[in-house]
């Protein structure tokens, strides 16, 4: 297999590789790593495993969806801003097509009693899935009193006072920086 | 204001401030459901089920679904692209200074605050859906405590909480639980 130099990566390959990633992974996040590895590392050699791990780590601490961020990184490394756009569109286009079909079909059956009952059951199951997801997130993200206070504050602010989630996000980032600088200084003394 | 511009602006904000993957977009969708007529908390729950059962990132699936409900196919495309636009721009900038960003102590400090807050926001969004699906608070005045629970949905919820947390079933794909709940819904006419 030829070594993929920057100019020799075809845009259509970028698009199709990421379209396959988007089409074949359920749930997003870490579930996407094996597919990304297969396409970007093993199949095309666009990046090595270390780079992919870096992209993934940065994807987790930048806004947006991790798989999309990784696509932007890989595309940009191969073909600059245009490559990034093509890879990003590649990863989202299967979702757009599949969901459009489902949404159109579902809306067509919206008055069907079976569909109505099925979705009443499904909504209850989604509640359970969400409770589980929140418990998992709490276990991995809320590790000390500072974290608990921030999580509780974000919950109360949006549920009770009903403010936009933008403000807790910005506030928590600023508080995190202050807290980090504070404990760092405390550690040095 | 045109619906397309509203969609662009709302999903651009979502893409910019939802940090930590698909679930992090829920608080923003939940907030849209409160403010706009084209999305309800119930649709949000349906949408999560559809997104979990179909391939692709959850955040994109939800954006497409919400955009379609709001303004058809053009709405779906605008919502999805607007959601990825902020991260596209940010990643293009960061990719030039990759190492410096990932090793910056200020970035890791900020995330020390962002992760727990994002968890609180997702919990709030989950509560928004749970409170609509499982409870019927307006019935409290007429029927007392028992009327507050939406009995059928609460029973399915309780069953699913047990099934999704017992050992051999725990690792199953959410699709199986969603399909089983759909069957229960049809059989018991929820």
When the domains of chain A are counted, the total is: 3
Helix content of chain A: over 70%
Distance between the termini of chain B: 39 Å
How many DSSP helices of chain A?
7
Write down the Rg of chain B. Answer: 19 Å
Largest sheet of chain A: none
Roughly how many Å is the radius of gyration of chain A? 21 Å
* Spatial shape of chain B: globular
Shape of chain A: flat
Query: Overall pLDDT of chain A, averaged?
Result: 85
What does this structure look like?
- The complex is a heterodimer of chains A (189) and B (190).
- Helix content of chain A is 79%, strand content 0%.
- The N and C termini of chain A lie far apart (57 Å).
- Chain A has 189 residues and is mainly alpha-helical.
- Chain A folds into 3 domains: 6-108; 111-141; 142-189, no CATH class.
- By secondary structure, chain B is mostly helical.
- Chain B has 2 domains: 3-112, no CATH class; 135-190, no CATH class.
- Chains A and B meet through helix 1, helix 3, helix 4, helix 5 and helix 6 of A and helix 1, helix 2, helix 3, helix 4 and helix 5 of B.
Secondary structure topology:
The complex is a heterodimer of chains A (189) and B (190).
Chain A: H1 11-24, H2 33-43, H3 49-60, H4 66-108, H5 113-141, H6 145-161, H7 166-188
Helix pairs in contact in A: 1-2, 1-4, 3-4
Chain B: H1 3-17, H2 26-35, H3 41-53, H4 58-94, H5 98-103, H6 105-134, H7 140-148, H8 151-163, H9 167-170, H10 174-187
Q: Key terms for this structure?
A:
heterodimer; A: 189 residues; mainly alpha; 3 domains; disordered N terminus; B: mainly alpha; 2 domains; 10 helices; globular
Brief write-up:
The complex is a heterodimer of chains A (189) and B (190). Chain A has 189 residues and is mainly alpha-helical.
């Amino acid at each position: 297999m030829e070594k993929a130099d920057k100019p020799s990566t075809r845009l259509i390959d970028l698009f199709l590789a990421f379209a396959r990633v988007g089409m074949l992974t359920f749930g997003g996040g870490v579930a996407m790593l094996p597919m990304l590895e297969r396409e970007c590392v093993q199949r095309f050699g666009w990046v090595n495993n270390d780079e992919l791990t870096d992209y993934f780590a940065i994807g987790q601490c930048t806004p947006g969806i991790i798989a999309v961020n990784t696509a932007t990184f890989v595309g940009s490394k191969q073909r600059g801003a245009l490559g990034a756009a093509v890879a990003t569109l590649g990863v989202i286009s299967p979702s757009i097509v599949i969901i459009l079909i489902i949404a159109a079909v579902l809306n067509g059956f919206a008055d069907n009693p079976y569909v109505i009952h099925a979705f009443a059951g499904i909504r209850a199951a989604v509640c359970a899935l969400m409770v589980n997801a929140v418990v998992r997130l709490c276990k991995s993200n809320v590790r000390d009193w500072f974290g608990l206070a921030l999580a509780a504050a974000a919950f109360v602010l949006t549920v009770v006072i009903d403010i936009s989630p933008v403000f807790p996000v910005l506030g928590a980032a600023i508080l995190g920086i202050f807290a980090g600088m504070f404990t760092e200084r405390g550690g040095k003394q | 204001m045109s619906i397309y511009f509203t969609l662009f602006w709302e999903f651009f904000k979502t893409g910019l401030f939802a940090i930590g993957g698909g679930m992090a977009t829920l608080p923003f969708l939940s907030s849209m459901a409160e403010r706009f007529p084209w999305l309800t908390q119930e649709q949000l729950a349906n949408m999560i089920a559809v997104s979990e059962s179909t391939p692709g990132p959850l955040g994109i699936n939800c954006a497409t679904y919400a955009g379609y409900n709001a303004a058809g196919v053009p709405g779906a495309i605008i919502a999805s692209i607007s959601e990825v636009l902020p991260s596209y721009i940010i990643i293009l900038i960061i990719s030039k200074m990759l190492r410096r960003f990932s090793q910056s102590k200020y970035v890791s400090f900020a995330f020390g605050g962002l992760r727990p807050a994002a968890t609180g926001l997702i919990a709030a969004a989950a509560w928004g859906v749970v409170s609509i699906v499982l409870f019927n608070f307006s019935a409290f005045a007429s029927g007392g405590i028992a009327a507050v629970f939406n009995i059928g949905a609460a029973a399915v919820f309780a069953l699913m909480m047990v099934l999704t947390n017992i050992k051999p079933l725990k690792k199953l794909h959410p699709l199986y639980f969603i399909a089983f709940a759909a069957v229960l819904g049809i059989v018991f006419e929820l």
